[in-house]
Amino acid sequence: MAGRAHALMVMLASGLLVVLGGCSSPEPTPEPDVNVDLLHENWQDTPGVTAGSNGLQVTATARRIVEQNGAGGQPNPPLNLAGTHLVVSGDFTLSATFADVTADASWALYDRPPVIADEFRVEPAGLRLTLQGDDLEIAVFDGTQKRDMTQPVPVHDERVTLSDPGAPLSVRRSGDTLEVTSGGDKLASLPLGKVFSSGKLWLGLSSDSGAFDVTSLKAAAPESAGLRTSGVAVAEGQSSADGLQALAAKSRPDFKIGAAVALGPLASDADYARELVGNFGSVTPENAMKPQFLSPQRGVYTFEEADAILTIAESKGMTVHGHTIAFTEAMPRWMQELPSGTDAERKASATALLDYVNTVVTHFKGRLASLDVVNEPFDVDQGTSLQQNIWYRVFGPGYPAVVSKAVYDADPDVRQFINENGADVPGRRQDALLKLALDTNTQGGHIYGVGLQAHIYDLDTDAIPPGELSRTLATFDAAGLRVRISENDVTDDQGTDAQARQYASVLATCLGSRACVSYTTWGVDNRYNWSIDDDGSLQQGHDFLFDDGKPRPAYDAMRRSLGG
After folding, report:
1. Which helix H or strand E contains 249, and what residues bound it?
2. Is 71 part of a structural domain of the chain?
3. Are 10 and 18 in contact (CB under 8 A)?
4. What CATH number does the domain containing 194 carry?
5. Torsion of CA 384, 385, 389, 390, to 10 degrees
6. In this predicted model, what pLDDT tens digit does every residue of 273-293 receive, in sequence order?
């Protein structure tokens, strides 16, 4: 070292590099990355995605949400809800490589699951990349409410041409910037805004009309970002000795208190999971078992999300009520458009419909305690005539018996119900429901009971007096039929005290009658209580027992009615 103008002395102490005597210090040692190979994580409950020897194979499901009148069809591409999602608090990089793209390949990254109802989907904040040939669409959503929620508009939407469509695509968060690159070429650099603000990443892979392979899918982040994988939030939920189900079981051990559920909040929301598992002994898949969600194309079935709900319920010791087989307002387009003009057409369409019934019921055989085999059969204007849907047009007015017999042939043990609204109190609609159930059994059906939905949209017109509900239950009991209170929810337009009284009254009356075998409320937490107004805007309701993780007065009133 003699003769050097500036001698360098290097010391290693506890892994720290110290430079003495020099004119400058070296760059700090880069923080090591945490890496996750997402190809080997859980994708089994993602519709259209299967694991293979070379990675993931993605096929089109054509999942869309059809409006009640059969119009529209908002896209409903799947996310990996029940499998693995990522948790990361800082910067990260995700990369994917696609191969054998036959039409289009989409990769979605969201910071929370979408809210999915029977008629619409609320798009969360996130990023969607869609590759078609050498064209890549980059669409960014910020999760804000738009004028028409059924037609989500990205806050940023651009198309770029790739020099090599087979090169890896990467998404990188760096501080307040979101970068998209392909093979090292920067394609877009965007302000982060509200995207990925939750600290979680939910991943989706889908195709509109083709198929593709995912040969590489990786996540990386500096160690300090806390990158890790996580499963469903509901896994942490525990039943409570003070919950609604436990209280009800003290007087009627076989009586079930249930709630309608969706997979998104079950997977992502710890409050929702705590409320559900702590209080309910039964679940009804709110939408996941409706025909448009189970069979978006003829002969194509997407059971994955419904299966995930059933698996969660089973893991928590909860029973499952299936919802639903024949339902006018939740049919996929292919089912609505089956021909029925001639005898030959009706025969062919009958085969298609019965194949659907057999496939669905056989798939869920042994996992359902009960099932709505016919849902809302009467006119939507509260009349007493059967809706002339495809089941009616193909099989005639006796179609409930045809469906019931087909369900029985596939699963003789599941208890069958006809579910209807507006029949909660004595009147013409209730008379019609009773007659339909009895006629169905006379024609060879196997109806065990009826579901009374008990939706209270207006306390002045829809309220259910306990005396009239008691008369109703006695009427069905005398006819040899059981009753479910199947979809109870109550408006708070007249205040939370009035809402609480109605909730508690319906539950107590049901529990006090041998004819009433279960009670279900049509939701859990108002975080997920949304509807679309006539102008297309999104409206939040406050009809459920919990509000943003906290119990409402109605919950306390129900506990008191159960002796809690």
Report:
1. helix 244-251
2. yes
3. yes
4. 2.60.120.560
5. 120
6. 999 999 999 999 999 999 999
Runs of H (alpha helix) within 411-495: 428-442, 459-462, 466-478
Residue 223's domain spans which residues? 34-230
Coil, helix or strand at residue 19: strand
Does residue 371 form part of some domain? no
Say how far apart CA 28 and CA 19 lie, in whole Å: 11
Residue positions counted in the chain: 564
Residue 178's closest CA among 162, 153, 155, 209? 155
Residue 14 predicted with pLDDT over 60: no
Non-local CB neighbours of 525 within 8 Å, separated by 6+ positions: 265, 269, 271, 272, 275, 544, 546, 547, 548, 549
The answer to whether 509 touches 469, Cβ cutoff 8 Å, is: yes
Can you read off the two tokens belonging to residue 284? Answer: 């009804």
Contact 61, 296 (CB under 8 A): yes
Q: What's the rounded Cα separation, in Å, for the pair 353 and 334?
A: 11
Encode 75-108 in three state secondary structure: ECCCCCCCCCEEECCCCEEEEEEEECCCCCEEEE
User: How many domains would you assign to the chain?
Assistant: 1
Do residues 201 and 173 touch, judged by C-beta distance below 8 A? no
- Whether 86 maps to a domain, the answer reads yes
Tell me if 55 is assigned to some domain. Answer: yes
Measured N-to-C along each axis, helices 428-442 and 466-478 cross at an angle, to the nearest 10 degrees, of 20
* For residue 324, cis peptide bond before it (omega within 30 degrees of 0): yes
Closest CA to 57 of 2, 1, 114, 99: 99
Q: What global pTM score does this model have?
A: 0.93
**Distance (Å) of CA 160 to CA 163, 178, 201, 438:** 10, 16, 24, 62
Question: Strands of 135-141's sheet, edge to edge?
Answer: 156-161, 135-141, 126-132, 105-110, 200-206, 85-87, 228-230
pLDDT score of 3 more than 80: no
DSSP letters spanning 119-184: S-EE--SEEEEEEETTEEEEEEE--PPPS-TTS---SEEEEEE-S-TTSPEEEEEETTEEEEEETT
246, 180 Cβ separation under 8 angstroms: no
> Do 133 and 160 contact (CB within 8 A), yes or no?
no
Phi, psi (rounded to 5 degrees) for 94: -120, 140
The CA radius of gyration of the chain, in Å to the nearest whole number, is 27
Measured between alpha carbons, how far is residue 153 from residues 137, 141, 142 in Å? 14, 7, 10
pLDDT by residue (tens digit) across 399-422? 999 999 999 999 999 999 999 999
Residues 58-108: tens digit of each pLDDT: 999 999 998 777 777 899 999 999 999 999 999 999 999 999 999 999 999
